[in-house]
Design goal:
By secondary structure, the protein is mostly helical. The protein is 72% helix and 5% strand. The protein has 2 domains: 173 residues, no CATH class; 136 residues, no CATH class. Strand 4 and strand 5 form a beta hairpin. Helix 3 runs parallel beside helix 10 and helix 11 packs antiparallel against helix 12.
Length: 333
């Protein structure tokens, strides 16, 4: 253990190591707070995987993190200058001040009222701000830095490696009930409207009464659980993890995360069409229990498979003329 600790302190500067350990302590607190909702709400049961995936991503990126630390401490390391420097200082100050404020508000709220949506969200927001602030503040200094833009700052590039391990806690934290209810109702209305439209186009009479579909075999109530909010949050988590592990460009990561949400909506729509068709033929009672649950899990599986199939597309490179005709360039020279 002593040898491991000595090796770790040699690879990581003490100040940055202290920031990592303090950040890990904050993450443990967030895990304890959010675990209440992971065990109580099926929509967020995937949260149990978040700490494990965070550890995996940090471990997978550890060589890049050590290289970033060396780049920060090297002579000639790029640092934000001019207006970029002011933006950097403003960002660090904002992360630390607002992070501490929200974390304390959430902690006091939880101590007084117990587990609650606002308290968990405030603790999560505070932890995210504090983590970014601590990592930026304790990044190694360079003996002779050179001015650069803010994105080119070696400290920013180092902390960018922690975007997934820090921001993923937002996905596993339940949204404030008002926002979640409004989003769920919006998705629910869209699902019911599309299902009703599709069945009318197919010549199968379906009458819509709010969130209830009146079929010839009976009435089918589309509950909020069928709105797709559960698959949306779970697929957002899966898409974020796959983007963090397999993709290297920011635009690719954002695109995959956006596609994960679109996939979640469309696969849930297919699920709703299937269940409605099943109830149309066999009655509303036939979709209860196993059929309903199996269709729900199939949505998550299809979305993850679809995202995995998309990953090779992000690795494709368009061939140039020199790639297609390598002898042409050599003959011209």
């Amino acid at each position: 253990m002593k040898a491991f600790w000595q090796k770790l302190t040699q690879a990581v500067p003490s100040a940055f190591l202290a920031a990592l350990l303090l950040g890990a302590a904050f993450c443990l607190f967030v895990t304890w707070d959010q675990s209440h909702w992971w065990s109580k709400k099926e929509d967020y049961s995937f949260g149990w995987l978040v700490p494990l995936f965070v550890i995996y991503v940090v471990h997978e990126r550890w060589p890049a993190i050590k290289a970033g630390l060396v780049s920060c401490a090297a002579a000639g390391s790029p640092r934000a200058g001019g207006l970029h420097l002011w933006a950097y200082r403003l960002g660090v100050t904002g992360f630390l001040l607002f992070g501490a404020l929200f974390f304390l508000l959430g902690a006091f709220y939880r101590a007084g009222a117990g587990p609650s949506y606002p308290g968990t969200l405030a603790i999560t927001m505070g932890t995210v701000g504090l983590l970014f602030g601590l990592l930026l503040t304790n990044a190694p200094e360079s003996p002779s830095p050179v001015k650069s833009s803010l994105p080119g700052d070696a400290r920013v590039q180092l902390v960018a490696l922690f975007i997934f391990p820090v921001m993923i806690w937002f996905v596993s934290a339940p949204m404030v009930s008002v926002i979640e209810n409004q989003l769920s109702l919006f998705l629910l209305h869209k699902v019911v409207s599309v299902v009703s439209f599709v069945f009318d186009m197919l010549g199968m009479p379906v009458e819509q009464e709010g969130n209830v579909l009146v079929l010839p075999t009976g009435r089918v109530g589309v509950a909020e659980a069928c709105s797709g909010i559960r698959s949306l949050t779970a697929c957002l988590f899966a898409g974020s993890f796959l983007a963090a592990v397999f993709l290297d460009r920011l635009w690719k990561k954002i695109t995959l995360v956006a596609l994960s949400m679109l996939f979640a909506f469309f696969t849930n729509l297919i699920r709703s069409l299937f269940l409605t068709a099943y109830a149309y033929n066999y009655g509303p009672e036939a979709i209860e229990g196993t059929v309903h649950d199996a269709a729900g899990y199939a949505v998550l599986g299809l979305t993850v498979i679809g995202l995995l199939c998309l990953l090779p597309l992000f690795s494709l490179k368009l061939a140039t003329d020199s790639d297609l005709y390598p002898d042409t360039e050599s003959s011209e020279s």
